[in-house]
Amino acid sequence: MKIKKFVARDYQTAIKLAKEEMGMDAIILHSRPIKRNALFSRFMPNQVEITVAIDDTIQVSSDLTRKIPLPKTEIEPAFKPPLKENRIKEPELIEEIKRMNLLMSEMRSKLYEVELMRGLSEQVQLFYNALIRNNVNHQLALQIATSVESRLPRDYKVDNKWTMEVCLHTLREYLQDVSPIELVNQGQATLVFLVGPTGVGKTTTIAKLAANMTLLEGKKAALITLDTYRISAADQLRTFAEITGIPISVVFSPVEFMEALAKYKDLDIVFVDTAGRSPYNQEQLEELKQYVEIARPDETILVLSVTTDTNELIAIFNRFEPVGIDKVIFTKIDETFSYGQILNAIYEIKKPIAYITNGQSVPDDIEVPDALNLARLLLGKEEIL
Length: 385
Fold this sequence. Notes:
There is one protein chain. With 385 residues, the protein is an alpha/beta fold. The protein has three domains: 2-62, no CATH class; 113-178 and 371-385; 190-369, Rossmann fold (3-Layer(aba) Sandwich), CATH 3.40.50.300. It is 47% helix and 16% strand. It has an eight-stranded mixed sheet, sandwiched between helices. Strands 1-3-2 form a three-stranded antiparallel sheet, covered by helices on one side. The longest helix has 35 residues, at 84-118.
């Protein structure tokens, strides 16, 4: 290691001297100003001292340098692929941005809801709260409550009874699309399919419908069951058919299905009981769709349980919708205390309600819903006003 000091009138001159003698690879270790004694400062101005070092053991002569080719250096690309760690952080950042956007959207929606609530009278706010307690979607409940408010006079107060009537009749308008089964064919059987997920009560419901058609309306009905997956389901319908005298066919293939349809074509109505299908099993849904396409039913009715969450009800409908859903039946009304999910689902799927069932008794526990009674049911037994 070679170390040397250089003194000059300024820093730049000292650097220049060091480079000329020590070379471009020299390293500045220290620098300081040199002050002259006040007596001599007039004749000899201050100077700068730098201490420079260089490792002379790794120097090569200029002649040798010219003979040895310089090593090739790779040009650094303008774009470097992100490291794995960075790639992981980017999706996390994107997800965080999505969460923040969702949160902001929810906050805006909540603020909008609060602002609208301020414009509602105390009576209508009580009605709105009753809808919320009965599981009606917040935005839908607010929409209905706002509609009620617009129908109430603003120049004078009205009594609670009158306000309650306005609330019920406004709610009724959202539930008035009711459409029971109709016999549409003259001289040919009306064909009705009942479809839906497992456990919603399709078999019991189809027995109720067939019994009412036969015993109460005097129509000639028949049953066809495709539910050969569950022995209990076929046996249940066979027992029912024997008691009521309604003919029944249990089919295992499309060929047998067409033969059964031909056998019952001169009756008034034929009900087809299908096996419960998982809405997330595409293979099962495709099999069901094939039977529907073969038969071309007059009505295909989706059976849904009121005990199911609103989001799941809508998801089930969306999965079965490619089969061709015309109406819905809500079962197990007697097994829950809140019915807002009926309103939520109907508002989203835009299909009429054919029937509701409220127990296991055949043929009694099934009815065509009255919109006003259904509105009262949605509000529960509580006194809201």
